Amino acid sequence: MSVRLVVRTFSELCITVGTLIVLFVVHILFWTGVKAADAAEGEIDSLHSQWARQPVTPAPPPASTGPSPSLSAEPSPSAAPAPYRAGKPFATMHIPRFGSGWEWPVLENTEARTLQKGLGHYSGTARPGDTGNFAVAGHRRTYGDPFKDFPKLRPGDAVIVNDGTTWFTYRIAKEPYRTVPTDTGAVDPVPRGSGFEEPGRYLTLTTCEPEWGSSHRLIAWAHLDATRPVAEGKPPDLTG
């Protein structure tokens, strides 16, 4: 085989490999984002249709514990709410720091296929507004990049959850914290490392770190600051 043929064959092989790499990058950066946006929009539409068919009766505020003393006391016990359905949406989340149009559905569990459609609720952690730790995971990159701007979170930022009856406004307690994937204490009822020292109504957000890797996790913690019935309109952080 001549040197010229070897060089030409090698060049063609490099072009082929390069093309495949480009196509793979396009798939990761573009196509998964398109699919995720469509899926998330469908989940939100599904929620809105479901909420439109049910009475808008907000759940009574939970116990006044932790750093939210302005909220009213817990009512007498009532029937336990129905469990969330695996892989199905039950709320939407808004984070004004990430842009006025930032809205993603929150679905039950953190399986890979669930996180391709929105944010995932750590099964077994608290519901929105309940005493305990409402913990939610989301992709930093790919599948719509919902938590791309995660490092921009700052103390006092609002994280607002709507379950169809109530707006729950949480406040970020401190800047994102870097840890390892095995640090399960980050989603404990009183999350370890958060600075919270007693039971309260908390929110934990998690995503991958570094931006294009998964060797670590970024964690942001928040506490419940206010609740507002949906019938009264959006909370000030979404209208101001």
TrEMBL record:
Residue ranges, annotated region (Disordered): 53-85
Keywords: Hydrolase
SUPFAM superfamilies: Sortase (SSF63817)
Record has Hydrolase as a keyword: yes
Entry keyword Chloroplast: no
Biased amino acid composition, Low complexity: 65-83
Pfam families: Sortase
Residue runs in coiled coils: none
InterPro entries: Sortase, Sortase_Class_E, Sortase_dom-sf, Sortase_E
Listed name of the protein: Class E sortase
